[in-house]
Structures
1.
Amino acid sequence: MHGRGDWAVRFPKEGNVVFGLIAAGSCYLDFPSLEPRCMRAGDFLLMNAPPSWVPRNGAGVAPVDFELMQDEPSASVFSFGRGHGDDLTRIIGGYFAFDPVSPTRPSLRYRRPCTLTCGATGL
């Protein structure tokens, strides 16, 4: 996702694990009933089943609904806002979807312990 100038994007409530890396620039993250959080290049975001949330740059900007942007299934980069120069914010993100846990199928796999031997000293 690329944002330039003033922009805001509303992501819907999600039942999966959502992740995002601020690869360039900075933005604020708005969550219901929480203070906005500033995110800068290099910050990583990991949320389990988040409520609706809004990354943004600029106050008073009406958020674009991300679900409406997904009408183009071949799009791999979504761009928002207007601007130029050094005001680019780039976010790389996605989500993990897991199969529901079945009571007849364990969700963890246990293996017997192993011993590692490193080098000639057996450490």
2.
Amino acid sequence: MNRLFTAITIFSIFRNAIRLPSVSAAACFAASIGRWKYCYFFLSLFLWSGTACADLAVIVHPDNAVNEMNKRQVTDLFMGSYSSFPDGTTAIPIDHPAGSAIRSKFYQYFTGKSVPQINAYWAKLIFSGRATPPRVAPDSASIPKIVAENKNAIAYMDSSLLTSEVKVVYIFKE
């Protein structure tokens, strides 16, 4: 509800900023410059606040023996360095669809690389036969369900969307 109010407020500011009074073109231009500055400021503030509010949670099935993981362990699983959880059971990493913002955020945090760099990395590993990339979910909304149905699955998601069907083993707070 708060986001909706913010969006409506920004839209109103934007709409009023582009309405020009019926005077000469030069006067309209001069008067609108100040309004545009405010409009851009509020619009950028709104867009920034939307990306900064969500934490990433790395999740597993509730019956999985692993209760906690560190950043290195998560990175190793999703980058193909390891194929097992720390307790030795097989891990099945689940990735978000290509182009999703959460996928970019995840790989940037855990590896410091962009998604195109990650894709190039996986292309090399697949070609050499050394590893297989994480399975890709059909959509981000299906991630909790996939993990809840597979004891060996590990995935990441927006922490604000967590359910009791999954267990959190790592939280990345922005």
